[in-house]
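I am writing to request your help with a piece of structural work I have in hand. Thank you for your consideration; the sequence and its tokens are set out here:
=====
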Amino acid sequence: SPTSAFAVQWDPTGAPRLAATIAPTPLTDDSYMGLRLHILSATDGTAIKVYAHRGKFGPFAWSPDGKLIAAIAGQDLHDPAAARLFLGGVEEDDELEQRFVPQVARRQLR
């Protein structure tokens, strides 16, 4: 079935993989509510990992060592905005977990 990629980033270590937010269709509703974060093989496009988290997705970024992914996302499908910080490993059993970093929040308020 057709899918639509909305954002893509190469693994910063040079490993042949990339992270992408992908929706089942290019429709507007799917671009907001249907996005899932994937780790893909850059050699054949197969999914190495698809995170179970469901909710609006904003920007995401790899850690410099390629072992973690940080993402801005909604808490769940009912959250009106992608405005929470999530962090997760890239191994098979890893999932995104909501995080709050008070030092960053305090610095931005100054």
Observations:
- The chain has a mean pLDDT of 87.
- The beta strands are 4-10, 17-23, 36-41, 47-50, 57-62, 68-73, 84-89, 97-99.
